[in-house]
Amino acid sequence: MRDLRGTVAWVTGAGTGIGQAAAVALAKAGASVVLTGRRKPPLDETAAAIGKAGGKASVAVLDVSDAAAVTQTAAKIDAEHGRLDILVNNAGLNILERQWNKLDPARIDSVLGPNLNGAFYCAAAALPIMRRRKDGLIVNVASWAGRHVSYMAGPVYSAAKHAVVAMSESINQAECVNGIRSCALCPGEVATPILDRRPVPVSAEDRARMLQSEDLGETILFLARLPNHVCINEILISPTWNRGYVAAMQQPHAKAP
Fold first, then answer.
1. 116 Ramachandran zone, left/alpha/beta (phi>0; psi -120 to 50)
2. CA distance 192 to 53
3. pLDDT of residue 257
4. How many CB atoms lie within 10 A of CB 135?
5. How far is CA 205 from CA 160, 161, 162, in A?
6. Closest CA to 78 of 30, 130, 26, 117
């Protein structure tokens, strides 16, 4: 497995959930981690957890839907570290209004901005730095909804995450000759704060059965530790107790006669 000591990782949406877990896991393994997100206090909490564990982290407030700010952040990483080995494209959100009859341009843009445009902006900013060293890994945190159109996730989120999966593979098609790998990580339900934006509340019992942020952090660490001649193009991962499967089993047509 690859030694991550001396490497530099940029994790977006690093203040909570999957981003926080990925940042902590990478830092514990020896990477210097740049933490970005829209709110500084959660980023500071992640940095403190990394410092307590003996890792290295720096914080930069960033809205990934701001293309100019993304470019400036990447330039700062390059100037301070001279390299970028890993990008975890994790920043994203969803809205409560997930039905077509409740959508308007502002709500659509609020989802596409961070989930799709932001992922593109960060990848485009990271790739030139990675090309110089002929090495780099981009992990695009997509979703189960990026493979299976989901009524629960809503049309905008589902479309954005499908596009992220396509974007990720297009990076592999173009950048494999430059030693750069991209993985679309497509988790099912994860017990993160984004669940609080669900139209229907999720019980504590159901959250305990879901994937946990740390599970995804370890998955991202696994990808980062693989030798650079290995590309895992996509990972589709779900809880064993898959609420979608369980709901289907409870339908009348699924029951034994």
1. alpha
2. 22
3. 46
4. 16
5. 29, 27, 29
6. 130
List CB contacts of 204: < 8 A, sequence separation 6 or more: none
- DSSP alpha helix (H) spans, the chain: 17-28, 40-52, 67-81, 105-112, 118-133, 155-175, 204-209, 213-225, 243-249
Give the residue ranges of DSSP H helices in 99-210: 105-112, 118-133, 155-175, 204-209
Q: Quick one: which of 237, 238, 253, 228 has its CA closest to 2?
A: 228
**What residue type is 104 in one-letter code?**
D
Report residue 124 as tokens: 């485009």
Which H, E and C letters describe 118-144, residue by residue?
HHHHHHHHHHHHHHHHCCEEEEEECCH
- Which of 65, 90, 86, 85 has its CA nearest to residue 186? 90
7 and 113 in contact (C-beta within 8 Å)? Answer: no
| pLDDT tens digits, one per residue of 10-24 | 999 999 999 999 999
Instruction: Considering the candidates 121, 151, 157, 245, report the single residue annotated as catalytic.
Output: 157
Active site residue 151: no
Q: If we measure between CA atoms, which residue out of 204, 209, 192 comes closest to residue 244?
A: 209
- For the chain, residues with pLDDT lower than 70 are 197, 253-257
In this predicted structure, what is the pLDDT of residue 254? 58
Tokens linked to 25: 């896991």
Which residue, among 201, 170, 198, 164, has the nearest Cα to 184 in the 3D structure? 164
